[in-house]
Fold these 4 entries.
Entry 1:
Amino acid sequence: MKGEQMHSRQPVPAKPWRDRVNSLGYIQGGTEAQADLLRQVLVQLPCDGKESLEWRTPEGKSVSARCEDLCRRVLSAPGLAERSAGAQWQPSAYARQWLENRDNSFLAAHLHARVKFFGELLLAIGDQTKQVDLLEVAKEMYGLNWTSPSPVRDRTGWLRSLGMIELWGQRVVRTELGDTLLEALPLCPPESARGEGEEAAESDDDEEGPLTLFGDSLQLEQVDLKNRRALIGYIPRGNASDSRDGDSTLTATAALRRLVALLGDGAALEEFSELCGSEFGISKTSFTTMMHALRHTGLIEQTSFNHFAPSEDAHRLVDQGNERLLAAYLHARYLFFGEILCHLSKPATTSALVTLAKETYGYAQASNGEIRLRLAFLQDAGLVERVDWQRFRVTAAGRSFVKNLTLQLPVEAEPEETDLAGPQNASPSSAPEAVIAQLRQYGNVGTDSREFEEAVGRAFAFLGFQAEHLGGSGRTDVLGIAQLATKDRYRIIVDAKSSGNGQVAESSVKFDALRDHKRKHKADHVVVVAPEFAPRLKNWAVENEVILLRIEDLATVLDRHSRNPMPLTELRDSFSHIDTFSDDLAERYQALERRSLLVRRIIDLAFQEAVDEDPIDDGYISVENIIYALRKEFTPRPSREEVDELIAFLSSPVVAALETTKGRHKLIDSPRNVALRLAGFGGTVATG
């Protein structure tokens, strides 16, 4: 008997709920034939991704699909197929076992071990259960954010094909084989799946008293906590993988460990760049961004001209086993780090933590990416655990750990005051708070689609497009036109998808319709804006040349754009990098922010020289002295050409900030007047 075969084998260890996948794909050819269709596919592997796989439906119809598409979209998530060392697709180990033993209970147990709500669905079947009832159980009892019955139908289809259930009209009925399987499966309790009711005992290794770091107490003052750095920045993590938690091969801590190891006892900048390019596959531009982040961690330092080495404590901080020491160190350097632990007694999403950071701690630059990176380090230290792909909670160790940290006290989020009397005044532009608030308000409701579409239109208008809200059947939601010279002009269409549960389902993004809209509106690029996207949509979007843009990422873009607006021509270049759109955009904004910071520092230096009681040369400062001062603050060091360009800008009659005489420069107006003059130009030029 097949049930006896199941009991004769060792029970299949189920992955923790948070590590199981949401997706269980469907092989075209019939709901009740999935197991047979899978067998037909697996016997054709190994296979190159570009080749075609063919199979026959129970009715004798021939169906085919590209190997790469079928294996990646349908078979890889539940672990039925995997890439070999030679980059071919091959059956997984347990798929090969199933081909040999032909035991459907064996395959069902392995699917349960890797897919959420598989065996649990069997348990949920009662006397009069329908598929719609199972959807409600998945949502209400197991906390799954499913908005359509498709995930349930996928699972019942596989279970029917494996002989575990039957459909009697609309009723779902467990078979004898299904009953036998259910007895053998280790099931996840609903409260555990929801991330509730698992209060672990306090850790036995509680720290006594204040944490210390190499002899220095970490009992920081509130002023120190408020002055911590806002951005950790870009830490390369290797090639992308199926891990929802960071989309990378290495964990955040392992990535830092590898970077410190690559640097060894020290290396020239060019040599380190080549090593990082080989190890992580990053470009020179990304390397520059990484170096900026890495230097600010304090883990590496410049030892001579274009030569860097790990800091004195770097190796100890990143050593395996010292993950909590690294977490304490990062807490002392970066805003809203250890404070996260106080707000995860109940599972929370990254987006919720971003809102909390801004509203409770005044951390205006908080973004999903920065919070995810902090969570990654806390996870590595065992202080936080992932409940599912979007929610996190504190562990018992985390609750003990945070008791020994000095935490920033909550503050009311207020606009930063500007010092108009000195060189530190902020940009005259204000962030588009109203647009961002509307995106968040309407994008997460699910019913106010028109209001959300209009908010998205206002967002792209803020970026410089002539944006028109269209909407309606057969039309895109927003049409954006970059009003430039004929050869530079381009058009984008934007589809706005609101969602009441925070995530847009796979079925909600219609790529065929988007292609039609693109053709109809003669658009060059397609963008979909939503709170969050189902995992598989990312790959599908790349294949269909569609950019997926989350609300929080768009909010970050608007905020950065308000201070350092990006030209429409550069935005066009970013739209062309579909698979790396967000990273490319971030790098471009970082370059613009660097330029603004350089301008500010040049004015600072000129101001300091001008007001010095004992100026070296009548308040003049040379380019060489400016570059010498800047080299300690910027990585990479500003070039002479870069500094000359900015000085020429500040010395122009229009800006009138500096006076240039024989290669020396002197401040000729107050920084306040310079800021007002530039703001005045902006107000005059602005047309809407």
Entry 2:
Amino acid sequence: MTSTVPFKSPLLARFAGLDGMRAIAVVLVVVYHLFPPAMLPGGFVGVDVFFVISGFLITSLLLREHTATGRIALGRFWQRRARRLLPALAVVVAVCSAVAWVVGGDVLVDLDAQVLAAATFSYNWVSIAGGGGYFAAATPELFRNFWSLAVEEQFYLLWPVVFPLFLLLPRTWARIAAAFALAAASAVGMGVIVGSGGDLTRAYFGTDTHAFGLLIGVGLAFLLAPLFTEARPRWVHSPTARRLAEAAGIAALAGLVAVTALPLGGSVAAFPGALLTASLLSAVAIVAGVWPGSRFGRAIDVRPLRWIGDRSYGIYLWHWPLLVLAVAAFAPGATVATAPVWIGMGVLAATAAASALSFRFVETPVRRLGLRASARALVARLHGGPRARLRTLGVALAGALVLAGTGAALAAAPEESSAEAAVAAGRAALEEARRNAPPAPVSPDAGPEHEVADAATGVTGDRISAVGDSVMLASAGGLLEELPGIEVDAAVSRSMWAGPGIVDDLAAAGRLRPYVVVALGTNGAIDRDSLERIAATVGPKRGLVLVNAYAPRDWIPGVNADLAAFAEHRTNVAVADWSGAIAAHTDLLAGDQIHPGSAGGRIFADTVAAAVDTLAHKRRAAAELFVQLQQVQLKQVQLGADR
């Protein structure tokens, strides 16, 4: 768009710079997902760039229609949105569901619920209601990225209905203020939830708490509307104003890149701080792009970015499910957060191809002709030449196969992942053992004579207290089988930070047994102070076994090194090498490559039992030395008395 374009309507149909901004937004998100975490740790703010663009564009279109006709044709508006969004969405869901059926395993978990949520534009609220919890990170949903589409689609449904109420406000400034006030309220809502320690998923996925980008775009459309009329102020065309707009646009893009380079955590500084900052920077960039005469919009609408921008919707749809499927099929030992670079590159190529094909053969025909006319055109090709007929039949056959695969996938979709099933089985075994034989308190005394007995006959389960996370919980059946009478206190999502409190409680209740097993290394880095506090409570009269960790997480090597270093110079501390024991048997782990099934649980139990026995021998040697020293001292005392 340039200032020389004639104004045939009060508002221009196309805005310079929006395709480039769409391209930038989708590149940020795709790079964040495909090449984590180093390249763009804050790349998820690209979603908020999309939100601002959507709010601005939809409101501008509504303003144009109202100015031209005096009314808003809701049916036609929603029909255009449906033509634009639904065909590509349906193709992605059908194709990826069929491929998921071929891949099998955890990618099918809750697929039926996911498809229903996508079809009803409620994916974000379904995710909130179901809880994004612990297992969601290890076994990601196939269509999890649809949460943001749900937010936008809810906006498309509600905003045209609310829009006339804004027009009742007599002044443009009042409309702008109302939009920005609602945006501020949305951002404050997110900040209150996050700041009070509430559910981050609720804050991030909620339409009410994540609508500020859309509302900033709404306010921006009201603010800029006078620029696109014949009555716009003359100063808008001044070289100074144009240069200021261009400089602001460049600075805004630089600031946006800086935000994406920050390692954003789960604090108010990020939610909504970074998201709100990215939204405001996007608004500034849009202003610079659409400013009459500005070269900024044309600069970021260069052909490669415009190509990406035109296909940004398809790119966003395809990239995440293709990543989940690729990891499950070709790198089962990894997660989407630890996928190798070659997986990311392959998914990037597949995403580009799939989105290009979708744009050309699905999105564009339906948007131009409508669904019915597109279907009639496809049928008409059956009456063409042999090649056209053959291609049409091939498309029909491929479509039938995809639909059949989708149906099979929905029918086969399990309600829980293999990791959840493994943990549930361990929990059930533990509950049954507690019902049948509640563990009796055991005296914490463990003198030298006990150490000799433990080393001679092996440490029995009734002399062991075990504290752990979901890996130990999944292994509970194996522990109870290998070490009958063992007391297991294990739960999902525990880290070493929780260890001291649990061990202190056991000691205070007189239930801390002579050998204490702690397996809390899976869910985060080790805090040495926590280890020191656990060891202090265990004391010198008991033995402490630290179980190292195995998981496709970047902190695991550091955890295992810290545990080994802590145990190295302590006579009453040993390490159970679960990582080494299971590394050659990863087929016995669940799909998340973390939680053991029944056979893997027995390996976990064997590893723990061996470490406890080794520690018992080590302590027996120390006890025997202690007894010998006492005997020597006694003889010396007797010799002194004889003299």
Entry 3:
Amino acid sequence: MPSRLTPLATPLLILTTALLAGCASQALKPGKTPDGARANVAILETTDVHSNVLSYDYYKLKSDDSLGYERTATLIRRARAEFPNTFLFDSGDTIQGSVLADYQALVKPVACDQELAIYRAMDAIGYDGGTAGNHEFNYGLGFLSQVTGTPMNVDGGHDNRCAGPHYPLVLANVSSARDGKPIFKPWTIVTKTIEAYTADGSKIEVPLKVGIIGFTPPPIMDWDKQNLAGKVTVSGVVEAAKKYLPELQTQHPDLVVAILHGGLNTAPYTPQMENAGWYLAGVPGIDALLLGHSHTEFPGPHYAGMKDVDAHLGFVRNVPAVMGGFFGKDLGVIQLVLNRQNGRWVVDLDNTHSEVRPICPRSADKSAKKAACVPADPAIAPIVQQAHEAAIAYVNTPIGSSTLRMSSYFADEGNMTALAPVNAAQADYVRTELPRSHPELAGVPVLSAAAAFRTGFGGPDDYTDVAPGPLTLRSAADLYFYPNTLAAVKTDGAGVKAWLEKSAGRFNRIDPTKTGEQPLISSHYVGYNFDQIQGGIHYVIDVSKPIGQRITKLTFKGKPVAPANPFIIVTNNYRASGGGHFPGLDGSNIVLAAPDGTREILAKWLERKKQIGTKDLEATSWTFAPLKTRGPVVFSGAGNKLDVARDARLDNIRQLKDNGDGTAVYAIDLSH
């Protein structure tokens, strides 16, 4: 890998050189750019905005300046002022993920002539292209076809050219099952006039042709099976790149930018790989790589030490790359330096680098005073104000009341108050609906699995927390974050145990003989895959044992669960179809695929109950195996929440350190 330094030819230096030379700008015809010319081009990226248009938390009904596209827009305008030549692309997961998104998709769907709020905001800033992420498919192909303004020849597709974003969407690896053609254009060319400088410092204006090609994670066929099965086919990222890049190259682009809704994984490649960016970077012909899906930043420390990856300057297998965070928290920037050689532009790798620019400055010093976040772009809020206010009115619809606090602050440590209502509502639904289609299963015990979706990944406010008192639709949306539909699978005792063993991967293995601190929670296992099962079942998790051997006791109504005991487990369509790679779950054992969304099922259950209290919810179904450790077992969470732990009878938790940023370090005594 060649050496790389901080860019030497900054736009300011080049501009100064040109001014000193006293050269007037010259416009050159295509193909006339002289060898020796030099240009700086910034590739800007947003990804995983998830329809967080405004800096607003719909669950807490208050502003949240730590997120929001309206602040990313400020960074975009600043970058455009800084760099004379910019291209702006979006890497997907754009139209889903907030109350506003659900309102415009499910509650009061936008009409054909109405543009989605997130696209209106993005059009106000101006984009050059984008791709579709996996969550673009959550609302079905008909909705996706409509709101992207893309007629699709698929079952349920939209034939009309409705209002969509004012920029091209490209997607190379999803095709119609009817005709085998991609449902979006697999690639396109974006041409802009850029400023460049000749070898003698003269400023010139020349066209730059940028080819873009897009990819989404192949597991969408599992995650959104009910929306996609029989309607589209999906190919691997590398296979699609090798198929369509030659077509793109026939148009003689100056640069090729691959827009992948996926991250980096160096495990052996398969066409079903979820995060195939490392392998895509190895396909010849790609000059820059835009990443997403992983809800993290690249370059960044998360990827330090990965093979053939420069996690400081932002290279993946010698290809400049960037991943701009999530929820509008960051802007990704690749600063390319181009040299004109032998009649073509060549990326100067030694003077190219990537960075992620946050809307709120990050400091490694937790004690430092928090710096102000960038202001919101004033042009964005008025564009979406009407939809924003309608979404707020919707989530404030009353549906009942509660006498207890339902929180996920300590969901990983055994507080199931936020999960118990979900499990109860799911189980009630299946006990009513399943016998109608499968009377032979009427006597099979029904269990329910739910995971805490909000466990602090997005910061100290990223937790479910429903206070005692009136319940609204906002409460249901807080308790169930995603627009999943409900599904039930038939399994047995062995399957239940395997399911729980997989979930227990949420925890690190704890060595009781170590004297230093040991983190309880694995940084490699996401919270939304920590399923906790209820329905008369009880189990014990021994974190001193290796993964796969941690469920030491498993009982149903007080009796040991035998491997052959039959069970129905209620979950969501994502999990039942293989999401999270749980053993035995691939869609083949689904016995009920509900047309209803889990959030809606939960809201109706709460409404029927009118008031819920402890008597309506099953107690926590699991405990840690007693383990006396020589050193503290620690975990991070929102700060100063010990009252929540005490209310949940988690008396073995104490706060060790307030980090000063809304988070804290806690210790848990596993000996009791």
Entry 4:
Amino acid sequence: MLKKVKSFEINDLPIRSKIIVLLLVISILPSIAFGSLVNMAVDKIIEKQASEHTLQLIGQANKSLESYGETMQDVSYLISFNPDIIRFLHGDEDLDSNDNYLLKKFLQGFTTVNPEIAGILVINEEGNYLSNELYPRNIKSLTEERWYQDAARNKGIFKFIGHPTDRSLKSHVNYTDNEIVSGARAIVDPETEKVIGVVLIDLKLRVISEIIEDVRLGKSGYLMVIDDEGEVIYSPRGSLVDSIQLSWFKSDSPNSFSKKINGKNMQFIYRKSPFTNWTTIGVFSTTESVMEVRQVNFYIISILFIVLAFVIGVSYYFSYSMSRPINQLNSVMKKVESGDLSIRYRGTRADEIGMLGRSFNNMIEQINKLIALMQIQGRQKREAELQALQAHIKPHFLYNTLDTINWMSRKKGALDVAELVESLSQLFRIGLSKGNDIISLEDEMEHIHSYLKIQSARYKDKLNYSISINPELNNIKVVKLVLQPIVENAIYHGIKERRGPGNITISGEEAQGNLVLYVKDDGVGIPEERLCKLNESLAVSFDSLEETRNREAIGYGVMNVQARIRLTFGEPYGLSIESEQGKGTIVKILLPLNRKQ
């Protein structure tokens, strides 16, 4: 048969383990929760700070670009206000070669003052142009090119074109298309509001690179610039992203978006310049911000480990300080269980454990007192038995003498005397009972019957009696001589004091698992005040037979019966008395229903 395995219960754990677990739970869980909250807060703060820092750098870069853009725009305005330029745009035939030379010198002055300008070209609607740095590559009219058409459509508003593409212009310095960005502005006749020409200005790309290339976002992040069509204006060498798609810019997430490019998670933060219509974008890998968060996480986890080690040490110390006195008290209790009642709990603690230890010591003191009391009672019982044995010596001699008188009376024919002597002899025989304190109910009834026969012979017609006991109760064991003192009180204090003959009835029954004997007389009864004192005396517990000699309320014999019953069987067994003055008295004797010796 398989043995059933007991399931685990928290109450099975030692108190030291419970204290350790409790301290760990109430300290580690809040620490973990706090660390998680700090981690989340730090993650958000780092992300916010990175975004704000990048936007600040982008704002500064945009301001620098707008400054150069404003310079290009101002140059275009100054050129358009020059009267000779206006004459040239209108196709004035009076302009000679010297005038053209002076106009070129005028344009050259702008490139000298503003070295960031790579070249300036002024062209009228007929395709004639003025420039010191730029010249056509072929005979194709420049008015047919895209940059001219875009500028003409803007009606005098400066427009940033970006990198030139498919342009039939060449620079003396031989700048490539990727090394310059262009801007153009149409010159409009204020009277006819007709475009009479376009001013084209090329800006060196190195100006933009000088502004942006030193800006670093983290370890590998950088800034790049694109135009309104997504064309890259500037991107540093070794950039992580080659091109930007306009579809990546979502209206629901302004200023930032994330993309996975070439297996890397990239973060993009951008801001568009309303003047240049260009967008400056900060590009960096999200792993760099994650590394910062991981570093913070490392510090948090390190602090948690330190807290954990501290809490474990503190929990072990507190659990030991709390469980040690409990274990000591448990050890003392086990010694007491083994029978050593001299052991005591030694401790000066003022807490609950100390109080429990002192209560335990008081309990041991009480147990020792009870054991001493039981020893005293046992010794007193043995003394009482010795006294009873000594008292039986004379009744034994008297019993033998009465037996001799009985046979002599029968021999001489005095049968009444012989019967009386036989009853007296029987009385003494049962009283001796070979030294036994416990006898059968049958013997007790025979004893009281012999006593009543003697008393009837003495009082003649004054005393009548009857005994009614169920024969099934004859084998019940009772304390001997419990009826004789009660019947004696009934005769001397009840029947003898009344006028006329009196009756004594002795009966017994089984009730609620106990044996109940009744001694009833129709004597003078007991006064109410004396009856109260009598019952109060019977209700008092008896620690020894010696105390029965000090009970004067009802006499030594009745108190001796009560004491012997209580000392033998304990409470609630014993005597109780009911009486009504002038009508009689009933004494109830409650005994256990014991069929064994």
